[in-house]
Structure prediction request, 135 residues.
Amino acid sequence: MAGELIWNGDQFEKELRRLVAEHLEAAAAILQAEIVRSLRVSARIGKNLWQASRPGEPPRARTGLLMKSIFYSVDQGSMTAIVGTSLKYGLYLELGTSRMAARPFIRPAIDRVRQKLDALGIHSAEFGIEREVAA
Prediction:
């Protein structure tokens, strides 16, 4: 009794790519929300008084511009997602400078949502901070 083998590889690959893209989109949205949540702490401590964050703490919100700039985008072709800020000073806050200690807000957010991301199949080894800043 001979069996017939039907190849559905193209269909399978298409469905697999769709599922991976869905998980990647969900992971990016989860990370974006966690970053924004960490930036909600206000710097205002009085009528005209502001308190900056301490080194190692996420930056405190004064204008909300950094918080509003957090975005994500997913490239289904390369199966990559970018989560970050379009503001140049976001990189300086995240990594610090020669004159200012870091006020990280992206890396701690990754650590806080690591379990949720692992459940989606997005593993922490796939994360990296890039120094790509638009001029």
Notes: The first helix runs from residue 9 to 38. The chain has four helices and two strands.
